[in-house]
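Q: What does the assembly look like in three dimensions?
Context provided by user:
Components: two
Sequences:
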Amino acid sequence: MQEAIKIPTSLNAENSVRFLRRDEVRRMVAESAVVVVGRRGCCMSHVAKRLLQGLGANPAAFEVDDKCEDDVLAELRAAELPVVFVGGRWLGGLDRIMASHITGELTPLLKQAGALWL
Amino acid sequence: MNSTTTQFVPSRRMGLYEPAHQMSMWGDFRLDSPPPPPLMLEVNANSNNQSEDTFGASHRNDQEASKPDDKVLRRLAQNREAARKSRLRKKAYVQQLENSKLRLIQLEQELDRARQQGLCVDATQLAYAGNTNPGITAFEVEYGHWVEEQNRQVSDLKNALHSDMGDMELQIFVDGGMRHYFELFAMKVTAARADVFYIMSGMWKTSAERFFLWIGGFRPSELLKQVLSPHLDDLTEQQRLDIVNLRQSCQQAEDALSQGMEKLQFILAQAIADGLLREGNYLPQIGAAMNKLEDLVRFVIQADHLRQETLQQISRILTIRQAASGLLALGEYLQRLRVLSSCWSSRPRDVCVSKI
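A: Here is the predicted structure of the complete assembly.
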């Protein structure tokens, strides 16, 4: 039931690898105000991170190995990476955060989750 | 095309020889086929002479041993083979001519279209004409129609705004205008999957439009800054604030995408440059680069998505009449860019006289 998914976590050190159990994924997501889960080396998750950083947030980044991608997608019930969580709750993929930023919804959401201090 | 399956050609020689012999000999002479080129005539002429001889020979040596028959049969087989090869060569040549003809027609069409759009027609443009990608060819045709429809919509909007048309009717024009841009974005996604470099280089646009290119299209924040803001006079305070915020949000989203693009360029360059000056082939590097290029399509999609969201947000902020004016301004702006491209490419050029 609780399989081990190898997800290299990189907050600062790209080389540190931790084995996360499936339930831990959910916990990690819930712990941070804003989380970006992306494929390793993917430029799209870089875009997501940069956008959030540009707004003053400091997203926790989880990078997923190619081999684990399908498992993680299944666990998160997502179609594609990157995926963004705000305040422990699912927000969506890159489209969604772009769209919600344009409509002005994103900043209040981030403030509410304690990701912004302005 | 098999020389042994021959039409039964009646001849006055029929009565002289055995049917079997005659069939094999007449196999060489396809009198029902189109006039052959000189080479074939030569072969046939030779066959003719030889056949004359062989006719005579086999008639004379009917009862003799099989030795002369062997020679005869071998020569006939060689003739058949030569004739067959000649036919194949002719067929290949005609096929090549047909292909060249089609290519010529295609190039002429490209040239016409390019001239109409005021493109500077140079070798690089025609190089794309040689890239017979059906997805891109289809896109170019569709885009031609899109521009025509765009021009129609611009003049319709102009007339509508100058008339005393009510908001309900104006809404129809605004919705139509917005939908028209969204259709272009959908077309571009399909074309990007066919050839992402084509879209990224803005090859379907005129030269002046290409100057302002950002990830395969216009930059939303520039649209707000240059085209809309200066020309919408009757904005409320709230609207003014909303437009300012929207422009800032666009800028931030664009920056994030641009930084992602830079990273992609870096990764791509790294993949290509890996192992320079090393022995061995570089196919693995090319393969790695090809994989990374898949991400480029996603950038085109995200950039167009941003353009679409921006247009929709603008229509939420503005009144119907203001939105109609905004669409008209954008349409006219793009028209002017196309005219600029046309004028630029047809400007009188100074003749440079080199000093010898």
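Follow-up: Residues 43-54 of chain A form the longest helix (12 residues).
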